[in-house]
Task: structure prediction
Amino acid sequence: KELASALPEADGILGFDDYQDISARLSSILSGHAHEPHVPQDRRALLPIAPVERAAVRDEKYSAAMGAGGAVMRKRLDSVPWAPLKIASGCDRRCSFCAIPYFRGSFVSRRPTEIITEAKWLADNGVSEIFLVSENTTSYGKDLGDIRLMEKILPDLSAIDGIERIRLSYLQPAEMRPTLIQAMIESEKVVPYFDLSFQHASEKITRAMRRFGDTEKFLHLISQIRVLSPEAGIRSNFIVGFPGESESDYQMLADFLSEAKLDAIGIFGYSDEDNTEALALENKIPEHEIKARVDSLSSLADSLVSERAASRIGSTVKILIESEESQEGRAAHQGPEVDGTTTIEGGNFTIGQWVTGEVIDSLGADLIARAL
Result:
């Protein structure tokens, strides 16, 4: 209702509760009928607390109409050679700064058959790289009775004709396991790309965030990955200015970034969000101080990412071309839209073409390569 009041020019404001009847809602709005906005409910209450009890409820009530499974019901709106592929919806974690569980609900995995069917459909429609997305990819399968289901489904996805690259998104560091790391590095077509949500490096702050881990544990995880795959791409996001963050906490985060040598870093200033525990926390950091810390850490992050990119000069990369005009694409360690890119010097390749090249230079997070 607040959003509808703030956007009077909108014909209708729809929420997640409207998913099940989305077609009827849109038809009504397009026919000129007024849509009555409502206050969203806490979607965590819509499914059983026990993950293993959710599959039957999802199959009965959710299906594709709720965006949680069912037959392939999507239409490609562009012709880019990569596409996201949703593997689950919702989240069971209770991070104190995050409202996602409130409006997305409990974690629900799509069944492997649904995911494979959609991946085949994408391959038949010009996609050669799929990006497995969810709010927490490391939890995939726990509600289906198999927490290692991701390790089992990756070979099936790799066997699909036309799919050349498989990428996983949003991995929870606390839930990373040796079998998943090994599967991501050793499975054919799966790129060693680790989108790890660290958020901070001070144990005091991660605990206040209702998360787990610290500098030592995170660096150990990174070393585990790089022992198996030195060229692995690792990215993460961090929140600066969380309530109670001291100068020493901030410095601990800066020191961690300097040692971690990440390929992509996102820095965000803390802000209060409705329906979160952090909203009521004391010792809030003044906005001007949050901005100063964000600016300082962002500058450091840019420098560190540039150094990491420069360290790849001389390496061989496989690039998926996404722009004919600029001859720009992405290597295995570069995720779509949020990470750096790789440009082929003097190339004349078409969108969707795969090109092997040697990195000859870097510019910030971006690479410049010569086709081999």
User: Anything to note?
Assistant: The CA atoms of residues 65 and 301 lie 41 Å apart. Confidence is low (pLDDT under 50) at residues 64-70.
